[in-house]
Amino acid sequence: MYYSSFIILFIVWAFSPIGAIANSVETIPYDNDLIGDARYDFAHSVEYLVEGHSMESYGFMDGTRVDVVPATTFQVGDVIAFECTFDKCNGAYVKKIIKKDGECYWVEGRKDVWEENGSRRQSMDSRTTYGWLCNNDISIYGVAFPQKG
Q1: What's the DSSP call for residue 135?
Q2: Distance (Å, whole) CA 50 – CA 33
Q3: Coil, strand, or helix at residue 94?
Q4: Closest by alpha carbon to 54, among 115, 92, 95, 109?
Q5: DSSP 8-class letter at 86
Q6: Strand bridging mode 46-49 / 113-116
Q7: Residues 125 and 20: beta-carbon distance below 8 Å
Q8: pTM for the full model?
């Protein structure tokens, strides 16, 4: 099940705009302390390459490798890989959870506007586009962590 979900995520990612799927995370490296945390399923983590700049302000530059780890719960401060399933943000993204209300999430990426390839860009996130993402709006694949090493 996870394998097919990640294949779909990869296909969506491959055809998404550069700024839309910046597979990235805040600087929360996982270490031996987290490996024993029952919330994470490290055995089914999947590697992704950061492409884009929308999460640079959290320390993940274009070209950074991350592991997306399935989790049983998600909380404020987690950086999640997810698929948005409604018209405002149809596609796959990686963003930081800023607020949580039950099973609804407020996610954000880069807070500023930047130039990329001669175009003015701004992170697409709850602050600028989505609003709250709830149950049927979002399918979360896992928490993203920078790779060790």
Answers
A1: G
A2: 25
A3: strand
A4: 109
A5: S
A6: unpaired
A7: no
A8: 0.71
